[in-house]
Design goal:
Length: about 220
């Protein structure tokens, strides 16, 4: 039985919240002021997305924390939050709970993309390397060897320096300039296991950073 009246709108109400009906009470509850869009940077070479120094990855990984922080970081009475990325926008469905009274909202935020070259792709473009992998093998085996090299590198996506910045054809093989020492080591171990290759490794001091000696590796891989 409705025996109460809302002093704001004059409508009857079964229950008043802070002296108002449900609709008037919720209209007074400011949930959050959202920006028009979320700005992200997309590397034109590797396709990874970045935002405010965050590690690059898929666009959903980069945006997720920002979306949740908008609603949850200051305990904004959020009961549930669902979002999806579609047609260049972040579509957000959020449900708030104000003392037992729930309010649902839908928001669509533009994704503003800015193309750039990320740090790691820039390093690859400028021929940065930490290891040289020298592969020496019969010409008949080189195609298969290079397929294996690409296969090993493709499995190292977590290592952002796992790139080949330069390939130099040599008389009896190739020299690969690789950004990651770990990736170079994995290639060498794979070649030893797969082709029974002979390995030789040397190090050359290239400088110092904050008192720490920096060296570059050269790994010779000989396939008979």
């Amino acid at each position: 039985m409705k025996d109460k009246f809302c002093p704001k709108c004059g409508r009857e109400a079964e229950k008043l919240f802070e002296g108002m009906c449900t609709d008037c009470y919720l209209s007074k509850k400011t949930t959050i002021n959202l920006p028009a869009g979320i700005s992200v940077k997309a590397c034109k070479y590797c396709g990874r997305y970045f935002r405010e120094g965050k590690v690059g990855g898929r666009i959903a990984e980069v945006i997720e924390k920002d979306v949740r922080d908008m609603f949850e970081s200051k305990k904004r009475n959020v009961k549930s939050l669902v979002y999806k990325i579609k047609d260049g926008k972040v579509h957000v469905s959020v449900k708030f709970d104000f003392g037992g009274v729930q309010k649902s909202e839908e928001h669509a935020l533009d994704i503003i993309e800015d193309s750039f070259v990320c740090q790691y792709c820039s390093m690859a473009e400028t021929h940065y390397y930490n290891s040289i992998v020298q592969i020496r093998a019969p010409a008949a085996k080189m195609e298969k060897i290079m397929q294996d090299v690409r296969s090993v590198m493709s499995r190292l996506k977590a290592d952002r320096l796992a790139f080949i910045s330069q390939i130099k054809p040599m008389k009896y093989g190739v020299d690969l300039y690789i950004g990651s020492k770990g990736a170079a080591t994995k290639i060498a171990k794979h070649m030893k296991r797969r082709f029974k290759a002979e390995l030789r490794c040397t190090k050359k001091v290239s400088g110092k950073i904050k008192g720490k000696t920096i060296s570059k590796d050269t790994i010779l891989i000989i396939v008979r």
